[in-house]
Amino acid sequence: MNTKKVINLSLKYPRITVRTLATLAAIGDNEGSSVSEIAQRMEVGEKNVATTIRRLEEGRAGNPDEQLIRVKQNAKDKRFKLIYLTAKGRNILKKL
Q1: What is the reported pTM?
Q2: CA angle 46, 52, 56 (to 5 degrees)
Q3: 8 Å CB contact between 68 and 92
């Protein structure tokens, strides 16, 4: 990630942290991955990623228009959820 771009994005979107941007980038690189797969790729704890993903899924103040990701149930194994970017999430990543 380009540091200047991250700083500019954090000024434009003050609620988006570096952790959030890193998670979005990991999802963008591996759409359709589970939380545990994303955590492994980021080399961080699964609980940290799960918390960030939950916040991203909820969107700002529960507003669906602010959601940066969408979560789908894995059709083959209902225990796992698969993570995808929304159009808004993709647009933010393009600015990096």
Answers
A1: 0.80
A2: 140
A3: yes
Q: Cα–Cα distance between 79 and 94 in angstroms, integer?
A: 31
Sort 12 into a burial class: Cβ within 10 Å, 0-12 / 13-18 / 19+. Answer: exposed
pLDDT in tens, the chain (96 residues): 567 777 777 777 777 788 888 899 899 999 999 999 999 999 999 999 999 998 888 765 555 567 889 999 888 887 888 999 999 889 888 877
Residue the block writes with tokens 């991203």: 56
Q: And the tokens for 75?
A: 């059709």
- Residues 23, 84 contacting (CB under 8 angstroms): no
SS3 assignment for 22-91: HHHHHHHHCCCECHHHHHHHHCCCHHHHHHHHHHHHHCHHHCHHHCCEEEEECCCCCCCEEEEECHHHHH
